[in-house]
Amino acid sequence: LLHAGEVEMRDGVAGGPAIERAFDTLRQLPPNTLYISEEFVKEGRPPNARLCDAGARAGVKLYTIAPVETVAPAPTEVSVTTAELEAEAAAEAAALLEAQRVAKRKNAMVLAAVAAVLVLLIGGAAMVWKRRGAGEEVVATNTAPATPSKPDAAHPRTVYLAPFQVEGADATLPDRATAIRLGAMQILRTFPELRVVDTPAADAASFSALLRVGAGGPEILPTEGVKSAPPVALLDSASGIRAIVQWVVSEVSAQPRTYAVADALNSFADAVVARSLNDRTKADASLRDAMAKDPSFLPAQLLAMEYFASTGNEADALAAAKHVLELEPSNLDAARKVARSSLSSGDLQEAFVGFNAVLKREPKDAEALNVVARYSVAAGDTEKFNATLARMRGLPTMAIAAHEPDVLSAQGRIDSAIQRYYKVEETSPDSAALALKIGRLSVLRHSLEMAGYKLEQLQKSDPLYGYHMLSAYIAAEKGQRDVAARELNSALAVSVPGDDAWTSAAEVHTILNDTPAAMAALEKAAQRKEPTAAYVLAHPLFRYLENDPRFQKLKETLVAQQAEIRTALAQVQ
């Protein structure tokens, strides 16, 4: 799995939300296959590599690379061929080479980094070199904006807290030194303008402290090299953490902050130490105690969000994420946690609070935009749907799961929708979501030949979900009940909140003339609040159920859900 994100080092071990999400994803992936996360794709995509949608696992959108020679033939409607793409890539490469030659003739320095087929131009700081005097002194002029004197999120300062020194016969000082150091590091990690490392680095400002027994009792002297702060009375772990954090913040000119009450800080330090020792019982109790004593203590809520998620306690992790979002609305990890967990539990109001927070920070976030678009269709909010599609322009086509003909499909106009889907496919031949939509509607229109072609495409682009779901449709159309059931179970097992898996299951059961199973699947879809309310209400396939009392009750539920969705979507600007 190729995944991108910030890595946190604790006692020499890599960790943090990015690492945890990667491992959660790997546990759900088959072996011997290369997968690429959406976060990695955002960092840079090879211009001549074809990325295929591989669904989502553990809340992470995934892609695979399809070799050119194994990509299914494009439909006749597609006007862009592989040869043309390769020619375009060659033309771009030739243009780049010519630009480099011109730059050399003008004595400008262009930095280029080449990784496989990806060429990343690194610009922003043009260096003008001049020779002065007989000594041939070289003077460099940096035209890039100067780094601010104070660190910020865009220009963080690297900080290293070396192990503390202890003097004196007080047996409690070594343990207290560990608690203060780990507690201070955890708090400093929550400052966006600081980057705390666990090992010395050339660009890191190194700090430490001396704990000793003074004339008035234990005291701590924060240090930076030979420089030290005035001694501070060491009453408890909290007093030591405050002294270290304030010393570091002052020395690197970071933003001063207020801290939790002493009791909360002491419990927080105990939780951090217990976690480092894998003492889950004490870590859990101490962390809860810290949050209870000071609910507004952001570092404790951030640690709780991360810790409870790592121990599988999703309910408490979500509660902590909500607190984090209240205290720090710009926190992207908390926003995603709230959005995904709330969507999974069916709390659409909280889900769209989270997605709105994500979009405020990342206006082009594909996951959030796809969810907003799909639920806009479910609620019949065409205006918001079109506005969301407009914002998605420029995103990789394989990352887009919502398309303009979705409105026609939700109105029950299947024949018109599929013709428009073919048109969209001309510019999105690598979209797994689009392939599944065309495949499903092809089966409903009894066109198994087209469905078979799309199945071949999904085998490469979405082998874990889309391939099995379309296989279930095709098997149902052929009357192969056992095959359809097996394929449907495989698809449902990897479905994620916000998709339409159970609505699709209802269509498969309807094709098989299994009305009880179709109704059960529709009720499950409503329970999960899938973004298909408008689709189910208008779908001609379900019209034979209109006199069924269960379906009539379901229709009332779906109409109420549409109102709920519209209210939730109103939070998204």
Quick recap of the structure?
This protein is an alpha+beta fold and 573 residues long.
Structure commentary:
There is one protein chain. The protein is of the alpha+beta class and 573 residues long. Helix content is 52%, strand content 14%. The protein is built from 23 helices and 16 strands. The strands form 5 sheets. Strands 10, 11, 12, 13, 14, 15 and 16 form a 7-stranded mixed β-sheet that branches. A hairpin with a 4-residue loop joins strand 8 (127-132) and strand 9. Helix 12 (366-379) runs antiparallel to helix 13 and helix 19 runs antiparallel to helix 20 (501-511). Mean pLDDT is 84; it is low at 69-82 and 102-147.
Beta-strand percentage?
A: 5-15%
Overall 3D shape: elongated
Number of strands: 16
Which class best fits the helix and strand makeup?
Answer: alpha+beta
Outline the low-pLDDT stretches: 69-82, 102-147
Radius of gyration from the alpha-carbon trace, in angstroms = 29 Å
User: How many DSSP H or I helices?
Assistant: 23
Share of helical residues? 40-55%
Notable characteristics:
573 residues; alpha+beta; 23 helices; 52% helix; elongated
Q: Helix and strand layout, with pairings?
A:
Blueprint lengths: L7 E3 L2 E3 L1 H10 L9 E2 H6 L6 E8 L2 E7 L15 H24 L5 E5 L2 E5 L4 E6 L4 E6 L14 E5 L3 E2 L6 H16 L5 E4 L7 E10 L2 E8 L2 E2 L3 E2 L3 H15 L10 H15 L3 H14 L4 H13 L3 H14 L4 H14 L2 H14 L4 H14 L2 H10 L14 H5 L3 H12 L6 H13 L3 H14 L4 H12 L3 H13 L7 H11 L3 H13 L5 H6 L10 H21 L4
Parallel strand pairs: 10-12, 10-13, 11-13
Antiparallel strand pairs: 1-2, 3-5, 4-5, 6-7, 8-9, 13-14, 14-15, 14-16
Helix pairs in contact: 4-5, 4-6, 5-6, 6-7, 7-8, 8-9, 9-10, 10-11, 11-12, 11-23, 12-13, 12-23, 15-16, 16-17, 16-18, 17-18, 18-19, 18-20, 19-20, 20-21, 21-23
